[in-house]
Known about the structure:
The structure holds two protein chains of two kinds. Chain A is mainly alpha-helical. Chain A has helices at 2-21, 26-54, 60-65, 68-80, 84-89, 94-99, 105-142, 152-156, 163-167, 202-232, 248-253, and strands spanning 149-151, 176-185, 190-199. Chain A has one domain (2-145, 201-253). In chain B, the strands form four sheets. A two-stranded antiparallel ribbon of chain B has the order 1-2. In chain B, strand 5 (208-211) and strand 6 (220-224) form a beta hairpin. In chain B, helix 2 (53-86) packs across helix 4 (104-110) and helix 4 (104-110) crosses helix 6 (145-184). Chain B has helices at 12-47, 53-86, 93-97, 104-110, 117-123, 145-184, 228-257, 289-299, and strands spanning 127-128, 131-132, 197-198, 204-205, 208-211, 220-224, 260-262, 268-270. Chain B is elongated, with a radius of gyration of 23 Å. At the A-B interface, helix 1, helix 2, helix 3, strand 1 and helix 9 of A face helix 1, helix 2 and helix 3 of B.
Amino acid sequence: xxxxxxxxxxxxxxxxxxxxxxxxxECRQGALALLVLQRAMLAVEDLGGLLYALEEPPxxxxxxSYDLNDLSAVFARLFADPTLTPALFGLAAAxxxxxxxxxxxxxxxxxxxxxxxxxxxxxAQLAAVRPFWDSLHDEAKKTMHSLPFIAGRYxxxxxxxxxxxxxxxxxxxxxxxxxxxxxxxxxxxxxNTEVGTVGLTGNDVARFLAAGEAALDASEVxxxxxLHGLQTNHAYTVPKTYxxxxxxxxxxxxxxxxxxxxx
Amino acid sequence: MTExxxxxxxxxxxxxxxxxxxxxxxxxxNLPLRRVALDDARSAYRDAPQTTAHERQVARIALVALVGExxxxxxxxxxxxxxxxxxxxxxxxxxxxTRYNAFxxxxxxxxxxxxxxxYFLDLLGLRRGPLRLEEAFVxxxxxxxxxxxxxxxxxxxxxxxxxKHLTNLADEWRKYRPFANTYKHGxxxxxxxxxxxxxxxxxxxxxxxVWQRRRPGAEGYGHISPPFKEMADYLADVAKVALDxxxxxxxxxxxxxxxxxxxxDGSWKLKPLTTTPWQWWFDKNDLSEPSRALLSAxxxxxxx
Lengths: 263, 304
């Protein structure tokens, strides 16, 4: 999993860099924005899949069998149940830290503080991830399946896209893409093509990037903590990811507890 | 002057303008997206450091990502090509294209070896049922019988090449599909530190294995063996062929639109035929020298 996170992070950064370096051609800007969207969403799906797999009863089968509705549901549950995030991330609760042998009071207090900071950070990451997933995962999937997108300029500029231009109630800022979803009702023999839009401006791309990075950061904390727990035979851990957020005295108190190789 | 056969013009607002906008978007937005993603995936694999075990695993994932980018193009190609023959009655091709069907690409490629030459002529827009494209336009002076035969030969050669490419791509689709699924869903590439691969004789071998989705347990799939660099080059070549075919199919349809002046209010008029309404693409041995000379003279074109 650390290798997956590293790969996804680099792939997302490369896509964002290519987007920022592209020329002024509106369609090419849109193309690169769609690439950032896709790669950010892949990072979110990795996180969602892992969280789904770790929910009770955790299993490898859950990791390879989820569907998109499962991921939507797990993201929703994280916001409905405040105990779920620390449980899935394996974050040590105050009671677990208090019960851990071989620590002095100063170390216990520093670990409680580090655990609280980690949870706060993870909550913020999930708060960035969930609306991104809810609003755009269908559109991101379309970037992987047959590209049912019309570039916004060909919808709003003459001669337009006929009924698709007419179906567009309000054009967003350019560049944007019009996404098409056709459904067939076999009973009534009706064919309906739904018209949606995906904003692909610089601000939109910054939002995609932020959500993707948040997902990667959360995955890193999740995997780091869980992996360390497995290696040290602990049900709960406190990842060192946000160690630098502690006050110097607390950081010093924990200096002997974390090795450089620890996650 | 020949009289064109009467072809009812599809409704401009419902069929022609949306189809035109979609084809332009394929050319200017969607295909560039695939090209840049492919280029990025290829260079990411090529430049990946491979000193530590962690770096080697990241590089293996990068190769699986290259498979993913390649097969996304194959899926686009399948969806686009299939949409021309599967659109619900009374709807334009993009109605089928924009209707997600998880089995479409599998079915499309599974049928490829059985497709007759006429299928590819239809797919290329070179004919529609019994109507040949060249019969739909006023041509002055009219084509001679020899010219019509040469056009037929060039159309047939183009259909043959596209058919050959699609048949070859069908094999790649079948072989590498589980890797593409992995790329899109979790990137679960088995780590050689956790998994040992054995051949039929029980000897340890190297290879890239992915965990298959929707299986009752951990079930690996492996079709990528070293040398991985050659594999990356091979995949990039497969992707390029798929892009070329898709590019050609899109261009074939766009050329027809170049002959029609479409207006936003739904009015239209035919433009004078100043260029060929088709694009030929074939192996040089599939078009005879006399036909080549005849077509070069008639259309003032040179064959590359």
